[in-house]
Amino acid sequence: MRPILVSTVVVVGLVWCGSPTFAREAGQGHEPPMHKHLATTVEKIRSGLVFFKPTAGLQHRAVSVHKAERMGLNEAKEGDEVVLVIDESNLLIDLHRKGVQPAGHRLIGGKLTYADPLWEVIEITNAEGKQTFAMDEASGSKLSMLKEGNRIVAELNEDNEIVDIYPTH
Q1: What is the CATH number of the domain that holds 135?
Q2: How far apart are CA 96 and CA 84, in angstroms?
Q3: What is the pLDDT of residues 78-118, one digit of tens each?
């Protein structure tokens, strides 16, 4: 009698805890995972790197001056107020001055038909045909969790480079 009672309690507990998770995942659809928008300031610029002051939700972080300029932060100076966009894997997705609207990121969905073994290039096939995109060096590691043939959604930056990628169901 006692093992049946313990089993019942465990099953009820799992169903109760698991139901919100399944409901949340089922409702996700093709929406991108949540990105955090963190306001901070440029702490210093040294040796070709832009360093940002740690704030709530942000540890010490630096990015190359070249990458900062590609993302739209041109001629950065110490004390500049900026917004960092961080994905669910704690990778920098975008960076722009505070008060400036982020430029043209867009989402593209389809089937992953090719992934370069060095994670530099992928091919996505959808209703528009086959399209090839370069991968941002930081987001390339996400390809290790995907296989050719998976349905995916990719986020492209202003340079038409993939900065985030995740599977869809």
Answers
A1: 2.40.50.140
A2: 7
A3: 999 998 888 877 888 888 888 877 667 788 999 999 988 88
Same domain, 43 and 82: yes
Q: Please report whether residue 148 resides in a domain.
A: yes
* Residue 63 burial class via C-beta count within 10 angstroms: exposed 0-12, middle 13-18, buried 19 and up: buried
155: part of which helix (H) or strand (E)? strand 151-156
Q: Which residues contact 39 (CB under 8 A, 6 or more apart)?
A: 55, 81, 82, 83, 98
d(CA 94, CA 38): 11
pTM attached to this predicted model = 0.60
Domain that holds residue 153: 106-167
β-pairing, 129-135 vs 161-167, is parallel
Measured CA to CA, the distance from residue 100 to residue 155 in angstroms comes to 20
